[in-house]
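Example 3.
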Amino acid sequence: MSEESNIASDQILPGHSGDGFVDEPPLVAGNLSFHDVTEMVSLHTEKKTPTAWLGAFALANVGLLLLGVMVAYLFWNGTGVWGLNNPVGWGYAIVNFVFWVGIGHAGTLISAILYLFRQQWRTAINRSAEAMTIFAVICALLFPGIHVGRVWVAYWMLPIPNQMEMWPQFKSPLLWDVFAVSVYFTVSLIFWYVGLVPDLATLRDRAKSGIRRRILGFLSMGWSGANRHWRNYEKAYLLLAALATPLVLSVHSVVSFDFAVSVIPGWHTTIFPPYFVAGAIFSGFAMVVTLLVVARKVYSLQNIITINHLEKMNIIILLTGTMVGFAYITEFFIAWYSGVEYEQYAFLNRATGPYAWAYWTMMTCNLVFPQFFWNKKLRRNIPFMFGLSIIVNIGMWFERFVITVTSLHRDYLPSSWDYYTPTWVDVLTLVGSFGLFFTLFLLFLRFAPMVAMAEVKLVMPESDPHYYDRAHAEPKSH
Amino acid sequence: MSNSVKTNSLSLWILDPLRPTAQYAREAFRPDGKVMAWFIPAGIGVALLVVSGVGWATNAKQFYFSYLVGWAFCLSLALGSLFFVLIHHLTKAKWSIVVRRIPEALIWSFPLLAILTIPILFGMHDLFHWTHHEIYDPASPQYDPILAGKQGYLNTTFFIIRLVVYFTAWTFIAHRLYTVSLRQDVDDDVSAGARMRKVSAVGLVLTAVTTAFASYDILMSLDPHWFSTIFGVYFFAASFLTAHALIALIVITIQRNRGLRGVITKEHFHDLGKMMFGFTVFWAYIAFSQYMLIWYGNLPEETLWYRHRLEHGWEYHSAALLVAHFIIPFWVLLPRAAKRSIPVMSFMAVWFLIMNWFDFHWIAMPVLHGDHAGFHWLDFTCWLGLFGVFLAFVMYRLGRHSLVPQNDPHLGKSLNFTNI
């Protein structure tokens, strides 16, 4: 590979601390073999459906049903059933849309950016995080779709040539959203599926029944693990990672444009794109922690998704939470510095006005609480991180609520000021969207390999072609 | 902590806080005395600064603006390097260990840069409109109610206090990172990594906050009416990108003089190139976000700043920034082969350094010459003079110590690093 020989390598004395063979804790704990990994992951797709899963699935279905009822009720009556009023034309639907798109970002960051940065620990969590991305984006896409009012012409959002020569408004960031989110969904889905192929082939080879083998055989596209297959696979994976990396930044930037291109104080500020991206990664990682803390326990995957993995995610939560907090403070400072009285009022109103409760909920959950993760004991404490991950997601939902509602409820004309209160339809639609999300996620847990087996094996020490030579020569190492 | 590495006397402290340790360096990492020709940039730098002094006598206002741009350029290199070291410690990066000594030498530039602030303090009245007293006097025809509202932040005393706070913070963080790493070369202290990580965690927060506010103070407040919340991120993006360029360039210079050959390989250049590529895109993303949102909102208090940069010839500078800071580097650095080619990498490193200066020139100069774009000879002499002195200090430091953190426990991984 390297054209020059490393003349400096012999400057390192064997056994000296610089020899580069310092033992690091292995990513996979419990001395598992390759076969153990296959068993531990595949088993859950092959065994009889557990009762607990059926219970959870039924509960999620109730939520999904609730969502269906709420959407039907909305279609029948129109958006008047929501709490929207004259200055606050965007309420829960946009809040929920941004919330769900944000959740998705962690999956793409884990699968694409951490891949490019050679963060091998990502292999244990990328499959489930990417699944979460796809399901979260589905939940997100629902909201603008039902917000349009006349849903039967929702397809007008797409630039479809028609005899009326009627086109969407290309200058509108809402249309850019349609493009950004649908591209994001497509690339995430392809990326996820490409990663799944070797694992689906593993399941196919283990399948007992003919029909199962045939379905999995179809989905694994004739994968045989041949050298050429792996070569193409690695190339496709790298290219998709490179394509998905800008998407991590672009999607939430475009979402932030929905607000920032306007001239509404509290919306129009240039830091929005990177600040939304940081917030999205923050909330997404919190959701991954919430899901995996439970999943690793229920499916006995503690040796694959180890406490070290969770700790690394918690560090990212600390980092991005602090970034988001700094962005809040920057916005506040620059609002004062701008000398624009409307800007100054908008931020003062956020902190002290009728929605101060929401503002301080957001501040506490997003800036203050993650600071507990400076403490190593707390970052490795499972009940604590579970609680904190939920607090973060509550905080991030409130961030979108604060941005959307507080900026609108008092506009330039004091005579039109109003207080926005959600209706029961708003609240139950939000609850129902969790039903949709968990229905999809439970199906994923039941039918797909929830850990990228092939990738996890690749980061185990045994995957080194010289592992067994070395193990033979020096039985101590690893 | 070992006592084998002595701290330097106070007078030389700004050059290097530690006495030389090069004698402890292993053969392949030892700096060649001749290699570190610090006196060449020093000579050129001092000569150009003397010439700039003549410019100061004839056109002080122009001198101060040119000087500020050159100084901000050097500051961005030091800050970008500080971010590099902080992030690589926190992520326990292995590939970069062999190049880490270069940014470590760069971060000890803060004491020098603090001293080089002095001319700016003398030029405050010429540089910063907000230092003028009459704009705060309601009786004066120049009274400016908007700037009067900002007086709590934009006033000379607080400005100087802030600069002191920034430089104290940066010097403190740099001192810890620099000395702990160099001491490890000699005493082989295994706890050094953990200690540097600890400093880096707090240091990253501190550096991020101070960098953002420093960018508001030094560059954004040149046009005191204008404001942009993303400005700190813009300054960070430019700094971090250019730091990679300078690191690559210094490595190439050392290798041309037969140092570090076979230690830093194409594999490491490939990674530096990837970071340069990634961050030129990131810079463009931030620059686009700032421009697009302000253009779309079209609020007079914000668009005016871009208006000044889109007329009287500055529109060519704006277009050049887009083409030369983003589009050309994007296509040049995209292929894998380019990032592994030393000629391409050295060309692009110089390119990015020039573009960073051009970027800061574009930010600062329309404040002075709103009515006609272009360059003054002082722009070049101040910039290259300051950069020469800055570089001389860096090369001098590099010549006194091992060129690689030779006792880093993961050095072997970095030496044998290959891209897949």
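The mean pLDDT of chain B is 91. Chain B has one domain: 42-408.
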